[in-house]
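Open question from group meeting: does this chain pack into something compact, or does most of it stay loose? Before anyone orders reagents, we agreed to write out a predicted structure and look at it together. Recording both the input and the output here so the notebook holds the full record.
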Amino acid sequence: MHSYRIIALALALVAGTAAAQNYTLKDLVIEHPYARATPPGARAGGAFLTVANKGATPDKLVAASTPAAKVVEIHEMPMDAGVMKMRAIPGIEIKPGAKAELKPGGFHIMLLDLTQPLKNGDKIPMTLVFEKAGKIDVSVAVEDMAAGGMQHKH
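Structure tokens returned:
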């Protein structure tokens, strides 16, 4: 009977760590920062999250950095003449009362020249920089390569 309690407690702890972590910086709520695991030898990866603006003024995600990559850029993937293209952009505006969703196939944080493979279950530190709210350090959970749907390549 006692061992069942230990197993139940262990399962509860594991389930708790698997839950998405949210962060608050002034009027911004950063929800579920995650990156996809990368295959062996990959030099690039993507990080994704949602930013909700609970305030009355717009803000803008203008930069990100992590020791997991030598270069970190904010990207978009617009359609151009029926072809999806990827390009670096100077930032992503988050309007008052709105959310900016960074997801596969859309806005995302591009991790270039990875310093090590991104492995499922790992966590990588990342600093997000907002035009008005400032900087916040988050922990990015590395999830399975299939996380978030569509996969893209460089």
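Observations to bring back to the group:
The chain has one domain: 22-143.
Residues 1-18, 149-154 have pLDDT under 50 and may be disordered.
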